[in-house]
Amino acid sequence: MALPLDDLRERVRAALGPDILVADDPRYARDDGAEGPFPPGLVVRPTATDQVGELVRLCHDLAVPLSPRGAGTGTVGGCLADHGGVVLDLAALTSLEIDERSLLAEAQPGVINADLQAAAEARGLFYPPDPASLKKCSLGGNVATNAGGPRACKYGVTGNFVLGLDVVTGTGQALRVGHRSIKGVTGYNLAGLLVGSEGTLGVITGCTFRLLPLPACAVTLLASFADEAAACAAVHACQTGGVVPAALEFADRVCTRVLRESGALATPPEAGALLWVEIDGDTAGLDASIRRAADRCREAGALTVDVAEDPATRARLWDVRRALSHTLRALWPRKVSEDVAVPLSKLPALTAAARELGQRHGLDIASFGHAGDGNLHVNVLYDPAAPDVVRRVDHAVADLFKITVDLGGTLSGEHGIGISKRQFMPLEQSAPLRNLQLDLKRAWDPRNILNPGKIFPPD
Ligand SMILES: Cc1cc2nc3c(=O)[nH]c(=O)nc-3n(C[C@H](O)[C@H](O)[C@H](O)COP(=O)(O)OP(=O)(O)OC[C@H]3O[C@@H](n4cnc5c(N)ncnc54)[C@H](O)[C@@H]3O)c2cc1C
Hints:
Layout: H1 5-16, E1 21-22, E2 42-44, H2 49-62, E3 66-69, E4 86-89, E5 96-99, E6 104-107, H3 113-121, E7 125-126, H4 139-145, H5 152-155, E8 162-169, E9 174-178, H6 190-194, E10 202-210, E11 212-213, E12 217-225, H7 228-240, E13 247-251, H8 253-261, E14 273-281, H9 286-299, E15 304-308, H10 311-322, H11 324-331, E16 334-341, H12 347-361, E17 364-370, E18 375-382, H13 389-406, H14 425-428, H15 431-444
Parallel strand pairs: 2-4, 3-4
Antiparallel strand pairs: 1-2, 5-6, 6-10, 7-11, 8-9, 8-10, 12-14, 12-15, 13-14, 13-17, 16-18, 17-18
Helix pairs in contact: 1-2, 7-9, 7-12, 12-13
Flavin-adenine dinucleotide binds at residues 31-32, 67-75, 78-79, 90, 109, 131-133, 137-138, 140-142, 144-145, 147-149, 198-199, 203-204, 325-326, 414-415, 418, 451.
């Protein structure tokens, strides 16, 4: 049935003014993943939070589907209007206040992650969640996907820093959930439910984040290894050998070769895996921690261990790591990127399985990611002109999910399910569990207008 978009457009114009409507823009048809293009029927860009409630109410009245959008850096099609309805662009809601004495930040959803980090640091405070997309992604998107990043290894993911949220439900009702105190256990943890709900339960219009004192200093080690197994052994040795890494990031042999050949990193030719180890904390004791981390890496067989203390060298090492996804994308015509996660003890098995999948299906596969959390970005790299390649890629991805779940892992460590992975949900979650979650969705969004059909596959 055709959506009543003309009617909706007129009602939006009458209630909220013409300026809130955005003219056709092809950017809204895609995010950073492979889904789409899905051109939306209507794009709305509010400049005040009360406009969000009014808009959702209008969509609810006419049963028009709506997809919240932050910065569109998601990789699973979560912010796309695959239903042809409304995209609600929250990027213009950018107010940010730091409450220094309470160690809190109050942010609207369109604030960019890096801007919160910089504002906190300017006051000697620290907002740890650092997705590799931090210079572009929005805090609303981070909350909706429970984004992680390298520092999740020590500090946790976005959800560990969310104290309270302002939210608009699928009927257009504005609610405040959670609290502004650091602790708070009154009622159900509804802020926790909204974290990672991928825009299916409510639209987040305000976030209260906890901040930490800024660590006095940080040092980055880059260690190279002959192969992935040795790097995984070093991850285990660091975590059980008296090192408290802020980040432990991994790159496999394909990534290591690409970084060496592009000149991004000077690693020995025999290196087949890399680890970035970040140590932060008080100046006193840091030298001992660095020594311990370097020793653990060498005991696990490191070929080289380079220590970077000055901010410029550290920043460059992290820029190389954060750019890895785009570096690979520039070298192969197509890239399908998954973000599976397994219990830490299964990380060596997962890295080996990813490599073996490439051999089995005749595909290039490059893995990198958050080894300290057991969260690996497995990238299938291919040329769409190669014979039978789409079928082989599909099989490799399906095999990867099956292996991950068999290892006790999960389909997504941080990117979410969205459109791209919903067909695989039955591998990990039973029908009763899905139905319980759909019951929750009905309570928040009775007409099923918020990102309908995402996360959970139809029967
Ligand atoms: C190069 C690159 C590196 C990345 N690295 C990481 C990483 O290290 N860790 C990580 O976790 N992710 C990473 N990502 C994925 C992505 O950046 C994150 O998922 C991020 O949190 C998405 O934020 P966004 O503002 O772009 O959200 P969008 O892509 O706009 O939306 C993502 C989802 O959130 C929903 N949403 C957005 N805003 C709201 C809101 N206000 N209320 C309700 N729902 C909302 C959308 O409907 C959608 O389902 C990376 C992506 C890229 C391109």
